Amino acid sequence: MTLHEVQEHEAETEGDHEEEILEQPGAGQNPYPELMKDTSFTRCLLVTRAGEHTDSFSRCLLPLGHGFPLYSPVGNLTSRPQEHIKQGVSVGDVGLIDERGQFTYFFNVFLPTTHPRQGEVLPDFVPMPPLDRSVDLREESQYHPPGTVLVSKGVLTSYLSKSPMYIEFKIKAREGAVWIFPHGASREDLISTTRLHEYIKTHALTWYRHINTGLSQLYPNASLYVVTGCDKTNSWANLSSLVPVTVRYDGRKRAYWDANVEYVTSSINRDPNKYTDNCAVFIRGIRVAVNPTLWTKHLLGSRPPEQLAYCSILATPILGIRARIRTWQEDRKGRLPAAIPGQEPRPYHPLEFAAQLVLNDSPEAAIAIVDDYMWAAVADGEEGTYFRMVDQLIRLLEAFDVVLENDIATLKRKEPEPRHTAILAWLRSLLILALGVKRRARNAARAKVGQVLPGPGPRL
């Protein structure tokens, strides 16, 4: 049954369940109605300092536009089939990013139930037609050449030796991250992702109900990831720092980080083996969100959740005078908490908030689908702070239109404006400036973004 059919069925049977819901203890008695209007999505917690390495790592490297950076590329070795561990994250995998910064694998939409790489599927699972790699995928074996070094904003790189690699990183920002691929990394991407849309619409609600069965804290709306691309390697070194610091990567003999500093974590895969031959360092894909009304009825039973999922975003700059003042204050007075007691923040991904924007714009849609390629179009390599993220979401709305087709809401790139002669273009720009068209449009986009980021919730 599709989500559209579910909606029609609910309309027909609404009266049958209304009395039952009203009789449930506490139904409709929430003392914070504004906060609980929509509890399906991840909430934003504004913090003044970086608190978790997994959260900070994704915030730092997402602006590079390669996709979501996996803080733990190996992933869980106990909950996945052995064949999936050998192959690594692949196109068609359905899963999510957990609090440890690794991909939690559920199943693959292109593999039959009996395939050794297939995960735990639903009883009535029907896969999509299998992929033809030569036709359906775009592959590049050395997209990231050997010796690739990727750094976040505010990290200065000095090569003391290129071969073998011996590098000094001066992290001037209040948070920073580094990726090193000594052997390079490959890239694969699904050429057309629209072929997945109808399939996702048919099954999205069932998937969310399946993965959340028996959980007290639900995996939030828009957390499901359908992988459409990834970068893989068998050798890497990564580092996350929550303070300004200078560290060195030494690959001359036995590769290691000279980073024995508080608030700095690092990892290295020195010896490729059967578990690490195909580790995904970046993944790209589709984020799937279902209509909040359906979520409330089918996953919450029309009750508030026990806990709200949240991610943390820095409300203060990581570079400049204000950042240095904040660091000086912390050195003198100590570091304040940057997390909600008893809860781990989810790694931040802007597409979770983009999905909210899309559904807010098309509340009649059954699902929202947003793709990493959309975010890559506005990624600018800048810092991952709240103000930069707001600006990038505004630019996303300026570059894409929200469209609704067959109960699926998504983003479609705006058509380029027709070319004009130089004089006409100048007159047109002058008229737009005089009328304040762009300013009003940007203010409207800012108001939309403000509904979801930061949205309702606590501040630290």
Automatic annotation (TrEMBL):
Compositionally biased intervals (Basic and acidic residues): 1-14
Region feature (Disordered): 1-32
Superkingdom classification of source: Eukaryota
Name of the protein: Uncharacterized protein
Lineage: Eukaryota, Fungi, Dikarya, Basidiomycota, Agaricomycotina
